Amino acid sequence: MHVMPLVFFYSMALSLLLWGIVFLVVLLATVTVLLRIWVRSCAKSLLPHLKEGDKDVLVVGFFHPYCNAGGGGERVLWCAVRALQEKVTDQTATYNNRAIIARSPILSTVKIAYYRAFAFIYGLAGSCCDVVMVNSSWTHGHVVSIWGARECTHKVFPPCDVKEFMNLPMKSDAGKTQHSIVSVAQFRPEKDHPLQLRAFHEFLKGVPQDKRRNYKLVLIGGVRNHGDADRVDGLKRLAEKLEVTQYTEFRLNVPFSELKQSLSEATIGLHTMWNEHFGIGVVECMAAGTIILAHDSGGPKMDIVVEHNGSRTGFLAHDEKTYADAIKTILSMSSEERMEIRRNGRDSVSRFSDQEFQTTFLNASESLFR
C-alpha cells in the first residue's frame, strides 16, 4: 500500500532536481549575457585608453586560473605575453579568474545533465572564437569535438626552455651500480604519485632482497600549501606500508641546480599523470638525458614520447604492472641500448623550443592583427 506513494515521491524529487538544473542553466546563461553587457558598458571607464568606435585598437585578454602556481602551464602564459609584446609595442593584458563550482555526485542523472548543459554553453562560447590555440593533439581533438571550430583551431606546442637540461653531459652508465628513477611533478592529486610508489613496489618484488639497494625512487616536487604537505605525508605513509621507504627519497622545493643534478644522475624519468594535456616535465626529463617512462595517454602518448627518426624516444605505461615491467625492461638493457634511446629522446625535443612556440603562436594569431 505504501509502494505507489514512495515511487511518486522519488519521481517528484527527481523531477524537481532536473527542473532545478534547467533553471540553473537558464540563470547562468542570463547572467552571462548580462555580465557581457555590463562589461561592455563599463569598458570606457575601466579601459580609458579605448575610444568608442576606434577600430585600430586591439585589446588582448588572457584567462588563466592560477597564473602564479609555478607549473608548466604558467610558463606558457608568460611566453605568450612576451611573444605579443615583441610583436606589438603597446597593448593591455587583462586577467580573469573563475569561481570553483561544486558538483554533486548524489545522482548520476543530475551529474550527467549538469555536464551536458555546461558542455552546451561551453560549446556555444567556443564556437564564437576567431582563433583557437591548443597545446597538444589530445587537446585539439577534445576542443574540436566540443566547439566544432576545426578551421580556426591551431595546435601550438608549449614553450619548453630546456637549454639548461640539454647542456647536461650525457655520460654512459656502463658499470653503474645504483640506478635512480626520478619523478618531477608538483604534489597535486592528478599527478598520481601513489601509482609511482605502487609501481616501484611491484618492480622491487621481482628483485632479490640483497639487490634492492641498487634502485632508488626519487620524488621531486613543489609543496605550495598545507594541502600539498599533507599529501606528501600520506605518500610517506604509503611508502612505509609498501615497505619501500628505505628505497624512496622525497625532495621538496629543491633549487634548480639540485633538480638538474638529480636528473643528470637518473636512469629513468617517471611521469604518471593520466590524460595530461601536454607534459612539459616529460620534455625536460628527455632533454636531461633520462629514459622517460610516461603515462600512455594525452600529450605524452600523442605528441612527446613518439618515434623520432624512426627510433624509440621512451616508454609508456598505464598501471602499476605495466610501469613495473617497463622499469625492468629499461634496466635490463645494455648501456649502449639505453644511450641510443637517451640521445634520440634528447634530439626529439627541439620541436618544443621557445622559438618554435613563438613562431607557431604568432602565425596562429596573425589574422587578429590584419
Automatic annotation (TrEMBL):
It is an enzyme of class 2 (transferase). Its main location: endoplasmic reticulum. Its EC number is 2.4.1.131. It is a single-pass membrane protein. Keywords: Endoplasmic reticulum, Glycosyltransferase, Membrane, Transferase, Transmembrane, Transmembrane helix. One of its GO terms (biological process) is protein N-linked glycosylation. GO terms for molecular function: GDP-Man:Man(3)GlcNAc(2)-PP-Dol alpha-1,2-mannosyltransferase activity. It catalyses: an alpha-D-Man-(1->3)-[alpha-D-Man-(1->6)]-beta-D-Man-(1->4)-beta-D-GlcNAc-(1->4)-alpha-D-GlcNAc-diphospho-di-trans,poly-cis-dolichol + 2 GDP-alpha-D-mannose = an alpha-D-Man-(1->2)-alpha-D-Man-(1->2)-alpha-D-Man-(1->3)-[alpha-D-Man-(1->6)]-beta-D-Man-(1->4)-beta-D-GlcNAc-(1->4)-alpha-D-GlcNAc-diphospho-di-trans,poly-cis-dolichol + 2 GDP + 2 H(+). Pathway: Protein modification; protein glycosylation. GDP-Man:Man(3)GlcNAc(2)-PP-Dol alpha-1,2-mannosyltransferase that operates in the biosynthetic pathway of dolichol-linked oligosaccharides, the glycan precursors employed in protein asparagine (N)-glycosylation. The assembly of dolichol-linked oligosaccharides begins on the cytosolic side of the endoplasmic reticulum membrane and finishes in its lumen. The sequential addition of sugars to dolichol pyrophosphate produces dolichol-linked oligosaccharides containing fourteen sugars, including two GlcNAcs, nine mannoses and three glucoses. Belongs to the glycosyltransferase group 1 family. Glycosyltransferase 4 subfamily. This is GDP-Man:Man(3)GlcNAc(2)-PP-Dol alpha-1,2-mannosyltransferase. It comes from Branchiostoma lanceolatum (Common lancelet).
